[in-house]
Amino acid sequence: MLIEICEDVVTLAERSDSDSIAVLEKLAMAHRYGKHFVYASFPLLNKICRMESLNKPTRKIYSDIKKHCASSGTLVSGIGFRVKVTIASPPASASVTYIQFNPKLMSGFELYEETHLLAENLLDCSFFKYIVEYYKRSMGISCPVCFYPMQGGGDTIKMVYLNEIQLGQHFCLAIMDSDKKHSQDALGNTCKGVKKVHKKHNPFHCFYYIMENIREVENLIPLSIVKLYSNYSNKQIFRDNINAEFSFFDMKEGLLSCKITENIYTYWTSQLFGYTELKQQLSECSGCVSHSNPKPKESDCEEVCDRRCIIEGFGSKLLDNLYKDNTSKERLKNVEEKQLSSAQKNEWYTIGKLIFEWCCASSHMRS
Length: 367
Known about the structure:
With 367 residues, this protein is of the alpha/beta class. It is 47% helix and 12% strand. The chain has 17 helices and 10 strands. It has helices spanning 7-14, 18-32, 42-49, 56-67, 69-78, 122-139, 156-167, 189-201, 223-228, 236-239, 262-271, 276-283, 286-291, 298-305, 318-324, 326-333, 342-359; strands at residues 2-5, 37-39, 82-85, 98-101, 115-119, 147-151, 172-177, 206-211, 254-256, 309-312. The strands form 3 sheets. The protein has a 4-stranded parallel sheet with strand order 2-1-3-4. Helix 1 crosses helix 2, helix 2 (18-32) packs across helix 4 and helix 6 packs across helix 17. The longest helix is centred in the middle third of the chain and has 18 residues, at 122-139.
């Protein structure tokens, strides 16, 4: 996170104010260990470096920050979101461009710890590293990123997010699947739970993002990379050259007849225009989903259809398999815009930008 030190805090520290000195010491640690990107104007850094109330090692760290001040100016001006360390009164309404951090009110906050990145799976956090690196390449940014990965699958993520709010010691960014089965579908219960918790507590230090342009994290993987993995190269999507929008496709299980609802039927009918055989298989579900009253349960459909697969998925280990394969990992590290669908471009940019803004850091300082 870009953390900007404001003049009023430096003035108080010069007067030996304990809270202001403590926050400067915490930020020095954050810089030294590459946890956040600490910034102040050159004149303020000069004052901090001469401050007798700070010990010599801390002043040395601020000398290092000052050394990079001129070269970091362009980067700082290009980051749209930051933390401002100040004792000034907060704005009347919450700002969308910065977090106001008052060291006198938040003395227990661990500014020397990196941002916590919360996802539904630790592997998702690993995958997000590729996305933020893509964003940095796209924007011509070379600044490091630092975060502590956390997971909370299913309903657990809501409790982990609530714990971060109540603990009140770290910045936390949660990124979640939408679990939407088609473009007009409602959000899934998992992300709605986090959304509800956030609305209730309105934390200054936590934020969440729901990937509403896709179903889940597997839908972010470029199909061109999936195709090149040997175990998937002969899967139905590639074998039959199915050219559809797969943003809401179940990449793991595939499109199963027993899970077709009226809205899913309508969505995939529009997606599979020109694929006669697939539309024929889909049409076999039309009477069931459109005219049955009451609508059949999925378990009843399974009995009739025996989980018949209209479009084959890639199995539950898709992301895991790609991540274990060094060649696939290398391809993910070097994704180009042309490999991404329109929905993927939107999500890769948005997620990359969010993670960069919440997790940007300085390089680990040499001893």
